[in-house]
Amino acid sequence: MNVIIKYFPNLSIQQVAQFEALFPLYMDWNSKINVISRKDIENLYVHHVLHSLAIAKIIPFVDQTSVIDIGTGGGFPGIPLAILFPNVQFHLVDSIGKKIKVAQEIAQEIGLENTTFLHDRIENEKKTVDFVVSRAVMPLGDLVRFCKKNIKKEQKNSLPNGLICLKGGELQSEIQAFKKSATIYELTDFFNEDYFKTKKAVYIPL
After folding, report:
1. What are residue 165's DSSP bridge partners?
2. H or E segment at 91?
3. Rounded CA gap, 89 and 21, in Å?
4. Residues 14-30: tens digit of each pLDDT
5. Could you tell me the residue ranges of all domains in the chain?
6. How many Å is the Cα radius of gyration of the chain?
7. Residues 6+ apart with CB under 8 A from 189
8. What CA–CA distance (Å, rounded) separates 61 from 68?
9. What are the residues facing 89 on neighbouring strands?
10. What is the pTM of this model?
11. How many CB atoms lie within 10 A of CB 78?
């Protein structure tokens, strides 16, 4: 938990409490439904929570922004971002029912009021928002193709509306088709833990 406070020192008492509650809740749910690799649950704060919050280092969403989290699994990056931005609306979507149920239960348990949930594929989602976020859920080309229809035209943030996805490893071939529009961020520019050495974020305005 200290690692979250290290990079986000201005959290309110409520936000600190919400972040602190995540570990016991995910431990409990993970013993019933495998939403995070059993070997990785001990690294929840660095590998999952802080990784999700890298998006906040790229864009501090303004109040009343709306965001869809595609393939949220157990709630990443949507739940950590919803804690950090209580006045931003997050819509978490996943095609696996038991995973979206975990995310929904955890959000309810910590008192998040800015999250909604959908058990479906993004292809079927008609809702329009300012940004789509995701964490290594599918190749970039597919992500762009599926979520283009969900991006609003009106702008209110410091970056034009679009897609921000967290990726690991080699991106050259995936990024090829978007070379002119995409921006790649090295997460080591934001966080100095070893875990982030191979981690990147890709922003594509849509």
Report:
1. 134, 202
2. strand 89-94
3. 21
4. 999 999 999 999 999 99
5. 2-205
6. 16
7. none
8. 13
9. 66
10. 0.97
11. 31
Q: Which CATH number is 2-205 given? A: 3.40.50.150
8 A C-beta contact, residue 86 and residue 110:
no
Quote the DSSP letter at residue 61: P
Token digits for 55? 């998006």
**DSSP for residue 45:** I
For the stretch 116-137, pLDDT in tens is 999 999 999 999 999 999 997 8
pLDDT at 38 over 90: no
Using CA atoms, how far residue 100 sits from 30, 42, 58, 70, in Å, is 13, 21, 26, 11
Torsions phi, psi for 133 (to 5 deg)? -125, 155
Q: Is the dihedral of CA 169, 171, 172, 174 positive or negative?
A: positive
Q: Which of 145, 159, 148 is nearest to 56 (CA)?
A: 159
In whole angstroms, give the CA distance from residue 163 to residue 77. 13
Q: In the block, which residue shows the tokens 């976020």? A: 133
**Strand runs (DSSP E) across 8-77, as ranges?**
66-70
| Cβ pair 78, 144 in contact under 8 A | no
| Dist. CA 131–CA 78, nearest whole Å | 12
* Contact of 52 with 74, CB cutoff 8 Å: no
- Residue 16 structure tokens: 């600190």
Distance CA 57, CA 124 (A): 30
